[in-house]
Design a protein that fits this description.
Blueprint: H1 2-31, E1 34-47, E2 70-79, E3 101-104, E4 108-115, E5 124-125, E6 150-156, E7 170-176, H2 181-187, E8 190-196, E9 214-224, E10 233-237, E11 249-250, E12 256-262, E13 270-274, E14 279-281, E15 284-286, E16 288-291, E17 296-301, E18 307-313, H3 316-320, E19 324-329
Parallel strand pairs: 1-4, 3-8, 9-12, 11-19
Antiparallel strand pairs: 1-2, 4-6, 5-7, 7-8, 9-10, 12-17, 13-16, 13-18, 14-15, 18-19
Length: 330
């Protein structure tokens, strides 16, 4: 009797379990890959209000800013390949942000960094796993890339880099230069990493979540242009002020995810508010999300009312100083 059962067990293993293991291994091999990016740091001209005016309330003008709107900034620019000749296109709403780095849990991220500036710089990621040489900070091999230098960062997207049990299907992390971070963040060397759960990714369109239609990123930050006067503090969303950030456009019924970020100083405590709509924040319904410096939050909405709505920080001083734009629901 025992001998017969042993034969049955062996047959089950060969016909059911072993193919299942092979299928699981094959699926893992397809789902886990290397996401490769070419990013350069470059000096660029930047205007906080390229229209030259206040697009929220034209009669109010630009207040204390006057004509002090154009500066030389340092930015991360994405390229298609190692020639660094063809920049990656970015939607207008991304503003000053560097290219979005995307991956799914189980992937490896490789970032080929070229420092095309006159300062030693780096790329330091939040959230993903790395060793000391790939930290982009604090003395590792990639912690200070000299002007004209190159370095390839390798980061692992382990389980702890992806969404937690109560998170949406994708979460966002910051990346920024970390040689002199308080200075380089103000220069504009900031970007985001979006990680999607492996079983919720739409692999046919890259490492993006399949349960949403659109993703937006909004960085709330007061840039300090090394000026002790109020005019040197630019209260921005993605590096623009007073409605000069365009492109947050969607339609009724779309599933929209907002990745909200803050960086900066002790004054960068923000209350992000949408007019005309609420969002879901970890099963909490609200229309205001609280951010502190280096905060990262991802919330979902389905627009319910058409209009050209305000999107702004609800801190009075920040709102009056230009930390506002509009989002359009068609």
């Amino acid at each position: 009797m025992h001998q017969k059962n042993d034969h049955v067990f062996s047959w089950l293993c060969s016909t059911l379990f072993i193919p299942l293991i092979l299928f699981t291994t094959s699926y893992a091999a397809q789902a886990m890959g290397t996401q490769e990016y070419w990013i350069a740091a470059e000096k660029t001209d930047w205007n906080y209000a390229p229209s030259g005016g206040n697009q929220i309330d034209p009669e109010e003008g630009l207040g204390v800013y006057g004509n002090t709107l154009a500066y030389t900034k340092y930015r991360y620019i994405g390229y298609t390949d190692s020639s660094y000749s063809q920049p990656l296109p970015q939607p207008e709403w991304m503003g000053i942000l560097g290219p979005t780095i995307r991956a799914v849990v189980g992937d490896t991220i490789q970032v080929h960094f070229l420092n095309n500036t006159d300062l030693p710089l780096s790329i330091h990621p939040h959230g993903v796993m790395y060793n000391k040489d790939n930290e982009g900070a604090d003395g590792g091999a990639g912690g200070s890339v000299p002007p004209g230098g190159r370095y390839t960062y390798t980061w692992v997207v382990d389980r702890d880099a992806g969404p937690g049990p109560d998170d949406p299907s994708s979460v966002a992390w910051l990346y920024h230069s970390h040689v002199a971070p308080e200075h380089e963040i103000n220069l504009g060397l900031i970007g985001t990493i979006i990680i999607t759960a492996a079983n919720k990714a739409r692999h046919s369109k890259g490492p993006v979540p399949r349960d949403i239609d659109q993703e937006f990123i909004a960085l709330y930050m007061i840039f300090n242009e090394e000026n002790d006067e109020e005019s040197g503090l630019k209260h921005t969303i993605n590096g623009r002020i007073f409605g000069n950030l365009s492109g947050f456009e969607t339609t009724l019924g779309q599933r929209v995810r907002w990745h909200l970020m803050a960086l900066g100083n002790e004054v960068d405590n923000h209350t992000v508010h949408w007019h005309g709509q609420t969002v879901l924040d970890h099963d909490r319904r609200t229309d205001v999300i609280e951010l502190m410096p280096a905060s990262m939050k991802s919330v979902d909405m389905v627009p319910r009312s058409p209009g050209n709505w305000l999107f702004h920080c609800h801190v009075n001083d920040h709102m009056m100083a230009g930390m506002s734009t509009r989002w359009l629901v068609k």
